[in-house]
Amino acid sequence: MMQKVMAISVGKISPLFDKGSAQQGRVLTAIRKSAVSTLDEPHGVAVGWNGLEGDEQADREVHGGQDKAVYAYPSEHYDFWQDLLKRETHQRELLKWGAFGENLTVYGLTESEVWVGDIWIIGEVELRVVKLREPCFKFNAKMNYKGASQAMIQSATSGWYLKVIKPGVVSAGDDIKVYPGPRKLSIKEQNQLLLEKKSAAASLF
């Protein structure tokens, strides 16, 4: 199966909540990403040790740092979310690349085929799969749906973080070459463990 980058997105730090909100300015985020390289306009984007040029993270302990420098998300999940948001929030606007706060929108790789420790070569860049993305209240606010985080975990559509092993330049349309790591834990299995942990915690109350 062909595996490639569909789009590359970056975002700047900004207030999470809109003007007029009681929490305006109290919470910052860079979850709002916009595509800077697409199949139609495949511009090269520099990738450094801490992530993509032009990208920011408001809280590096949660959504940044070298172990979470790049966030990848499957393009295959967009239809699922489009249908869910239409049903739950009556949102009809088409989701654009970067809608989930991802840096790399990828095709041909989903959580069941991605394993912790796998090495990816994209263009000049070498990356290592680190862990799944754990969504929080910021994701709910971004999607304008209070059940978004729960839906992401329950549907195992989390995406995953990658560490930069070799910096360089990537572009939309680049192939993704995967070199297997230990293959002891897939992102889907990691997601199942997280779901079980949250279910066990909820049963205590």
CATH architecture: Beta Barrel
Lateral arrangement of strands in the main beta sheet:
4-1-8-7-11-10-9-13
pLDDT < 50 runs, ≥5 residues: none
Distance between the termini: 45 Å
- What Rg is obtained from the alpha carbons, in whole angstroms? 17 Å
| Main structural class | alpha+beta
Specify the overall morphology: globular
Number of domains: 1
Number of helices: 5
Report the sheet with the most strands, covering strand number, pairing sense and barrel closure.
8 strands, mixed
In CATH, the homologous superfamily goes by the name: PK beta-barrel domain-like
User: Regarding CATH, which class?
Assistant: Mainly Beta
Question: How much is the average pLDDT?
Answer: 92
> What is the ordering of alpha helices and beta strands?
EEEEEEHEHEEEHHEEEH
Helical amount:
10-25%
User: Which band does the percent of strand residues land in?
Assistant: 25-35%
CATH topology: M1 Pyruvate Kinase, Domain 3
- By DSSP, the count of extended strands is 13
